[in-house]
Amino acid sequence: MTAISSSPEAGPDAAGLHAPVLAWFEQNARDLPWRRPEAGAWGVMVSEFMLQQTPVSRVLPVYEQWLARWPRPADLAAEAPGEAVRAWGRLGYPRRALRLHGAAVAITERHGGDVPSDHAHLLALPGIGEYTAAAVASFAYGQRHAVLDTNVRRVFARAVTGVQYPPNATTAAERKLARALLPDDEERAARWAAASMELGALVCTARGEDCARCPIAESCAWRLAGKPAHDGPARRGQTYAGTDRQVRGRLLAVLRDAVTPVGQAALDAVWHDPVQRARALDGLVADGLVEPLDGGRYQLPAG
DNA sequence: GAGTCGTGGAA
DNA sequence: TTTCCAAGACT
């Protein structure tokens, strides 16, 4: 039990976190293009797809090109999925591009071309999970949702729970805490979601916290406990060199840069091991990221 | 629930 | 140089 729920008389802000974090956000929020009014729900949604496991700095240029080329969901839906994969460039996890295209198609078919505001409808779209559905509903439509991303989870773990890092997988206790901390007022809740996330991204980071700049350092449970080191199992680092992921990345890079279908020889050149190479290519085809043609040639999916 | 799925910059 | 990790989703 936390101090929040142990006080029956207390409201959701028993710890006094809202005011300082919201005031800090007012002064320190980054001016990101998807936060501007002209971005709209589609801009917010595109940014959320791109920001899944990819840093802001790398998303920015691709986001601008994407919105300029496909300003509405129907514009993207009218394109071949392979064009989405190509425009995705080197953001990584290219299945996100395929899913964003699929979401645009679904929005065009099921929602009249407008990004749905209903959480359940958002969740039903490809590539949108619990986090992204809440993020779009909150950031684009000002709704009251617990937006639990890695930044918020880390902030809550430290400020409230008093540990250095949150669990590897999101727990029911974290969801409960996030809901309990959500301001009652809808508009305030939406700003709180963005503010708590920004605090984790700029001040209370995984690399190292900057408590001198933190608006809630005085009440932070982890800091007050003397910043005990994380004790649980170490988060397993992902080795990348030599994996199928690396081979898939190289294969897809060749196809992205090619205007015409690519022959087997060009693909064979990217990796020495023919077994792993074939496995990676089969995986890309199975995922719908690559389309096999007659004569052993390949291209990005035409639709 | 653990594994899989890219990429590149900062420490 | 190596390691870490950045607004997750899906199976």
Automatic annotation (TrEMBL):
Sequence ranges assigned to domain HhH-GPD in this UniProt record: 50-202
Catalytic activity of the protein: Hydrolyzes free adenine bases from 7,8-dihydro-8-oxoguanine:adenine mismatched double-stranded DNA, leaving an apurinic site
Family label: Belongs to the Nth/MutY family.
Gene Ontology molecular function terms on file: 4 iron, 4 sulfur cluster binding; 8-oxo-7,8-dihydroguanine DNA N-glycosylase activity; adenine/guanine mispair binding; metal ion binding; oxidized purine DNA binding; purine-specific mismatch base pair DNA N-glycosylase activity
EC number: 3.2.2.31
Keyword Plastid: no
GO biological process: base-excision repair; mismatch repair
Required cofactor names: [4Fe-4S] cluster
Name of this protein: Adenine DNA glycosylase
One Pfam short name: HhH-GPD
